[in-house]
Recover the amino acids of this structure.
């Protein structure tokens, strides 16, 4: 019986850790939806860009503050390349989330999920163009499964599909997330400390949102009311602890041990997990928060589409087609 090499063992751990991170990101969808509904009730007539920029700025600003307090004694040791990588990640991630969340206001969630996962196609295309080579057969087959799965989940009708504001903004966000994933793989940043680049990244993501917030905020009182009330504050705490600190620290540490193409495929589990959580979490949150947010229903489309994406991720994380030594 042969034992797996250390590199293979570490890669398998990384694949599992990134899969776990997608669960936290999936949780952010019903939590963020409840947060926006609660904020809309507290600030009637508030625009989508205001609620989006306020929530994202508060979420990543608080997460950044936690990390700054935790790493205070190490801040002086930040290297130029850690600053550089953290700021680049913040630019891609901050703008990506802004466009994604605002786009959700103008398109169906299923269409948004499909278009967001377009990075699982953008990444291997980029890698193929830069490296002038096709992806391995196993990755190529997983890409086909994922594309088919998200298309089923979205119920895409290619003849009728229109590219309106919501679809256009979501495609922009997917391109930006592609840049974020590829940045984590660059060998230029191989020696960077994940915790320190996250300490730079989170506050910078909050700063990316401030110009939008400045332009769209009705007043300072509206900002305070939409964040400081008990329900929004509790929902924000969940987003900060689990969906930001938990998920992004996992991503920033473990993604360097897999390829960007593999990471993009794993992250496609996010809409599947989000759809499963949407079957029961919304009612729990809505009853507690006092908003109207019904559960979604289990459909054949969810089972088939989610099954294809899950199969792709199981295959990707298996040892099939890999050498052992």
């Amino acid at each position: 019986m042969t034992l797996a090499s250390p590199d293979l063992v570490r890669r398998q751990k990384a694949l599992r850790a990134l899969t776990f991170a997608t669960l936290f990101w999936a949780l952010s969808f019903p939590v963020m939806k409840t947060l926006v509904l609660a904020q809309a009730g507290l600030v009637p007539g508030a625009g989508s860009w205001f609620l989006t920029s306020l929530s994202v700025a508060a979420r990543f600003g608080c997460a950044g503050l936690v990390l700054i307090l935790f790493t205070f004694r190490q801040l002086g040791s930040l290297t130029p390349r850690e600053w550089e990588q953290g700021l680049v990640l913040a630019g891609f991630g901050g703008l990506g989330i802004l466009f994604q969340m605002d786009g959700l206001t103008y398109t169906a969630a299923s269409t948004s999920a499909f278009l967001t996962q377009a990075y699982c196609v953008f990444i291997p295309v980029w890698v193929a163009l830069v490296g002038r080579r096709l992806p391995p057969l196993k990755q190529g087959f997983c890409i086909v499964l994922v594309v088919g799965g998200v298309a089923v989940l979205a119920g895409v009708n290619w003849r009728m599909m229109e590219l309106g504001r919501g679809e256009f903004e979501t495609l922009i966000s997917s391109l930006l997330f592609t840049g974020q994933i590829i940045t984590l793989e660059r060998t230029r940043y191989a020696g960077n400390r994940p915790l320190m680049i996250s300490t730079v990244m989170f506050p910078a993501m909050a700063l990316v949102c401030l110009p939008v917030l400045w332009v769209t905020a009705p007043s300072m009182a509206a900002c305070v009311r939409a964040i400081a009330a008990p329900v929004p504050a509790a929902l924000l705490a969940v987003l900060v602890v689990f969906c930001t600190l938990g998920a992004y620290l996992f991503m920033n540490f473990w993604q360097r041990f897999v390829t960007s193409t593999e990471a993009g495929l794993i992250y496609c589990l996010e809409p599947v997990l989000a759809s499963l959580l949407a079957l029961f979490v919304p009612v729990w949150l809505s009853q507690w928060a006092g908003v109207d947010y019904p559960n979604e229903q289990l459909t054949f489309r969810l089972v088939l589409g989610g099954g294809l994406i899950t199969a792709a991720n199981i295959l990707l994380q298996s040892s099939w087609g890999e050498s052992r030594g």
